[in-house]
Amino acid sequence: MTEFKKVIEDTAFNLLKLAVVRLPSDIKDALNRAYKEETSEAGRVQLEAILKDIELAEKEDTPLCQDTGIIIFYVKAGAKAKDLDTIETALQNATRRATEEIPLRPNAVDPFTQKNSGDNTGRHIPYINWEITNSDYVEITAFPKGGGSENVCTIGMITPGEGVNGLKKFVIDAIIKAGAMPCPPTIVGIAAGGGSDISMKLAKASLLRPLNEPNPSPDLDKLEKELYDAANSTGIGPMGLGGKFTVLGVRIDYAHRHPASYPVAVAFQCWAARRATARIHPDGTVEYLTHKVR
Amino acid sequence: MAVYRLKTPMSEEAVRKLKVNDVLYVTGTIVTARDQAHKRALEYYKSGKELPVKLEGLAVFHCGPIVKKEGDKWVAVAAGPTTSTRMDQFEDEFIKAFKVRVVIGKGGMGKRTADAMQKYGAVYGAFTGGAGVLAAKAIKNVKTVEWLQDLGMPEAFWVFEVEDFGPLSIAIDSHGNNLYEDVKKKAEEQRMKIYEKLSK
Predict the structure, then answer these.
(1) At residue B35, what are phi and psi to the nearest 5 degrees?
(2) Pairing between strand B23-32 and B3-7?
(3) Which of B65, B130, B134 minimises the CB distance to A271?
(4) Residue A244 pLDDT > 70
(5) Which of A94, A144, B29, B137 is deepest in the core (most CB within 10 A)?
């Protein structure tokens, strides 16, 4: 194995482990705030259990949720980085190792034979979202995506005539319909335009933006806040048992659309919003961006 | 909101005292069953085959755990609940056939199950979705496992010995109350107001 491949594999393994064991601080802060501000009794019981679970997982060095997700990676591949052809295999190896050693729950099932591969790999899984960047480093994000929140993701083709108002309604309908299913308080990722596939890809990727990082567009930032308030006035609350905190955050992205189409994708992320990112520099040094690593 | 601590086997009388919004901690034996295990347990019941454990007075947990083998013993690593609605199609029969007293899961269940809970005396306890380690900490012993070979780790029928397993928010009681239905109804009432506010 080349040196680089080994670094990628080890880093990806570490990222999977960090992701499933320790939530990033922006998520923990948001959950702590929700616990402080939640007024519903049942909601507070749930949030308290969530905070205890997060603490226990860190202490015990074990996955905080048994659904360690389907494994997704986002890779920013610097065009000037070397050995990019080794990344895919390295990520697959890291996934197998993580499944065995952490352990992760084997979650890769053939949709036709219903056979579980047993090691979280399979056709197109782990899925890798590639992006070529103008740099000399490789940035990898591990994004283990849970099934409960995935099952309520939805995409709609609203009419361009309905416009942004139609988008808002579609999002609120999706949140009400999802109810308790996606393990609220959730993060809701929304994307408009592009096309059916593009909007969902953008919606999902938007879940990676930290909760303390505003939308780069002031208008969309305002819309995020408006939809955040609207979502939290549904009363669905933590785990759908009623309360103020249905969502921890709303993220919005977009692509330009075809004049005739207005796709709106809504992706949900459970409170266990697991993600971990690291940058691997050409000299082999690894910089972890989402977690403090000793 | 009252806090209850019950030991298995739980009596019908004991669970009938529980009301929505109460908090329950269970000590004793609980079994995991997801879609496939529900189906198979009911097939066993119909054909008169014995399950590895008598379910009367126990809790059934909608859960696909992560378990690992340490020596010759299984240890629960993370064991939070899975979405319960998928089991709605089995649960009324399951409650009737096996007389389980507590159904543990997340996301709630529908009228069919709630009706069976009212009729036969059972409750639905919501365990915090995702809180897999919190659940695993309360699992003191993995007594046995059935159907692991063909159903796999998440779908197998795990028998756990638990201590103060919870908190379980009682979300459906045996008196016809369903917290999820209340929340849904309120959200429905909010919908038009939210639309109006957003279109300004």
Answers:
(1) -50, -55
(2) parallel
(3) B130
(4) yes
(5) A144
pLDDT over 70, % of chain B:
100
User: B50 and B80 in contact (C-beta within 8 Å)?
Assistant: no
| Cβ(B128)–Cβ(A46) below 8 Å | yes
Sequence spans of domains, chain B: 3-198
Q: Do A99 and A176 belong together in one domain?
A: no
Residue B98 token pair: 């096996």
Count the neighbouring beta carbons within 10 Å of the beta carbon of residue B164: 12
- Whether A46 maps to a domain, the answer reads no
Co-location of A154 and A250 in the same domain: yes
CB–CB of A216/A162 below 8 Å? no
Grade residue B190 by pLDDT with cuts at 50, 70 and 90: very high
pLDDT in tens, B86-97: 999 999 999 999
A242 contacts B85? CB cut-off 8 A = no
CA distance, residue A90 to nearest chain B CA (Å):
24
Whole-model pTM: value is 0.94
**What pLDDT, on the 0 to 100 scale, is given for residue B130?**
93
Residue A173 is inside which H or E element, if any?
A: helix A163-178
Domain span at A82: 3-22+64-146+274-288
Provide, as residue numbers in chain A, all residues whose Cβ is less than 8 Å from the Cβ of B179. 42, 241-242
Q: What is the pLDDT of residue B159?
A: 97
Q: What is the mean pLDDT of residues A249-253?
A: 98
The answer to whether residues A238 and A176 belong to one domain is: yes
Alpha helices in A179-246 (DSSP H): 196-206, 218-232
Same domain, A10 and A140: yes
Touching B: A residues 172-201, CB under 8 Å: 172-173, 176, 179-181, 183
pLDDT band at A2 (very low <50, low <70, confident <90, very high): low
Let me know if residue A33 belongs to a domain: no
Q: Which residues contact A74 (CB under 8 A, 6 or more apart)?
A: A128, A129, A131, A140, A141, A143, A205, A208
Question: Mind telling me the catalytic residues of B?
Answer: 38
The vertex-B196 CA angle with A213 and A257, nearest 5°, equals 55
Q: How many helices (H) and strands (E) does chain A have?
A: 8, 9
pLDDT value of residue A1: 57
**CATH class of the domain defined by B3-198:** alpha beta
